[in-house]
Every structure is written in C-alpha cells, then in structure tokens.
Amino acid sequence: MSHPQSVADTVDDEATIDLLQQLVRIRSPYFEEEEITAFVHDWLDERGLDPEYHHVSEPDITGFEGDNVVARLEGSAPDAPTLLLNAHVDTVKIVDAWEEDPCSGRIEDGKLYGQGACDMKGGLAGIMVAFEALAEVDLAGDVLFTAVVDEEGPYGLGADALIRDGYTDDCDAAIVTEPGPILCQSDVSNPALVLGARGRYLYDVAVTGHAAHGSQPHKGVNAVVDAGRVAAALDELDVDSHPDLGDGSVCPLKIDGGSQTLSVPESARLLADRHVVPGETKEVVREQAEAAVAALDLDSEVDVGFREAPAADIYYGPYVTDEDHPLVRSLDGATHEVAGKAPETGYFSSVGDFNYFGDRADLPTVIVGPDGENIHGAGEFVYTDEVVEVARIVAAGAASYLG
User: Peptidase M20 dimerisation domain spans which residues (predicted)?
Assistant: First the structure.
C-alpha cells in the first residue's frame, strides 16, 4: 500500500470514534495525565507500534513529574524527511458548570461531548489512527509520534521537554492536530490548514507605592490605583500587525494588591497577556511597556517584567509556515483526495505547543484539527465526522510528504 488515498481508506470510522470516546471518558486535566498516558501507550503497544515513555520533570516551580508517549516509524531512505505528529493528552481543569458528566463522551447529532473532546482529544484520536495506518505503508521518511502532557498548563512542559531532550532535532516538519478554525484570526471552515500563530508573553508588573493610613490617602501612594493606571495604559498600547497573523493585542488579566483595612496599599502586582506577531520580541514589548509607564509619570515605582518560567527560552514565539512548503502541498493534495475540495487557509489567534515547534524548533508546522464548540467550557463537543476526516487527511498527507 503506497498511494495516499489507499492509506486514508484504512482509517475506520467506527473504530476512530470508539477510540475518541474512550479518550474523552478518561479524566485528564493538566498535571493529572497518568491514566491517559498509560492508555495511549498501551493502545500503541497492543498494535506493535513500540511506544516509549519520555519523562518530563519540572521540580522548581510546579513540582511536576509526568510522561509523554513517543513512538517512531522508520523509513527506508536516510535522506528523506522526518515528520513529527503531535497532540496533547491533557485538558483544562474540569469546569463546574457542566450539566452532565463532563467525561461522558455522549454522542448526539454528530457531536461527541466531554471536557477536552475538541481540545484536543479529537485530534489525539486522529493522529493515533493515522499513525497506525502509516505503519502499514512503505515510507521513505520517518514518522515521530508524540502525545504530550501539560499543553493546557502554564508552560507546555511536555513539548518543551521534547525540544530540550533532542527529539525534534532530526525532524523536518510537524503536524499538530489542535482544533484550528474555531480559534483562527479569520472566519475559516474545515477542511482547513492553519499555517501559523501569534506568539505570547505574559507581563508581570510590580508596582510599589507608599503606605499610609486609609483615612488620609493623600499621605500615601496607592499602588492599587497606580496598577490600574498601568493596566489602562497597557490596554491602549500601539501593537504591530502582520499580513497573515493580524494584529498583536494586550489584555490585562489580574491586579493583586492591598488587603488591610484603613491602609493605603503599598504594593500591587499586575498580570497582562501580550499576543505578538513577528518582530515583537521580548525586548521590544518590554521597552513599549516601560515607555507607556514612563509617560504616566506615576509616584509609584513600576518594574515591568515577565512571569517566572523554568528556563529563559520557555516562551511562545510567533511563526508562519510557507504555503509552498512540501508538507503544505502534500496536505493540500490529501484534502482534495479525502474531502473532495481544496482546504481553506487560516492562522491561529492564540498559542500552544505548535509555537514551540514552529518557532523554537524552527519546524514548518501545520495545524490540522477537527472543530467543535465550547472549547474550555461546559458543553464542549467535537464534530465526529471531522475527527475521521482529519485522521484521513493526516495519514494521506504524511504518506505523500514522506514518499
């Protein structure tokens, strides 16, 4: 079996949705992925796909210990490309507002419900069955399968560890099966190829005022009030734009400060999201924030920093994949074969493991994922037909790209 369409045809609808349902029924908020990583490992092992655990450790900030699951198909030609297939196994923390079991995996009207059904157990099921299909193909290049932990957590520790431990060193391109269209900058529908994403920094701003009795606030410098002024200034920052990724953005998230009654707050802390496009480096966004603060001429002292991270290179950089890259052309052809139409093209509005691969690992990275609704919220669902379609497109596109 060598023709891409033949590979796609081996993806079984019922088996794919059954796998998805099993994945959704496993509770797996970030930092609590032991059961689902064991399931993915055992599923691959039962099919003779030789999975391995890849340990992930971050002792200093989170204390996290966990495992990615990796497996590799060896191609026949040493000079052929190696393709990374990636999905994350974790979900956000379970949302309280669910009116049913958040891990039910209930199917109704072509929708499968559950926390993480769309983000991204649909995509995880897709690459699992695509990888199984590719194992039956004579490929020139290698396929590296990675199911990673902690994408929804604060640092993307699973993908970070893959890069840090050299797993991506010999890769030439990557497919990540995140839900794409629903989180794109523009109105895009599946089948779609998402060819880039904005990056993100998290401002961590310390504001230091001067304490005084709350009945005489004029004798102090209110750090909470000044933190609010800084938040407003950041909210109005001029940001750059990119022809594909759109505009950057700033979103103040949280102000902490004060607590005592009858006391002018001496200190406050402001957190603000900064989504960036190429050219908006860490140095640039710090300088812009510092200039905005200086223009306020506050009595408080303000220190513009960034959130603490396990390492200096843990950040989400923006990236764009060329539409003419061989992987994009292969996925375009696969979409024509599988779906009978040309894929739409979009660009992601936020960040994820794909930023690590597309920017830090410098891999041409394409997001191909099933859509749904209510991502990260109660009532989350994924369209089951799109899960199967994504599996087929990934299998056919990978077979074409790898020869």
Answer: 196-296
What is 4-198+318-402's CATH topology? Aminopeptidase (3.40.630)
C-alpha gyration radius of the chain? 23
Q: Where in the chain is the domain with CATH 3.30.70.360?
A: 199-306
Q: Where, residue-wise, is CATH 3.40.630.10 in the chain?
A: 4-198+318-402
Give the pLDDT confidence of 290-321 residue by residue, as tens digits.
999 999 999 999 999 999 999 999 999 999 99
Structure tokens at 212: 């005084």
Pairing relationship of beta strands 301-306 and 111-113 according to DSSP bridges = unpaired
CATH 3.90.1640.10 fits 199-306, yes or no: no
CA distances from 263 to 24, 210, 216, 256, 299 (A): 50, 10, 9, 15, 17
Model pTM score: 0.95
pLDDT band at 2 (very low <50, low <70, confident <90, very high): low
Asked if residue 258 lies in contact with residue 265, where contact means CB atoms within 8 angstroms, the answer is yes
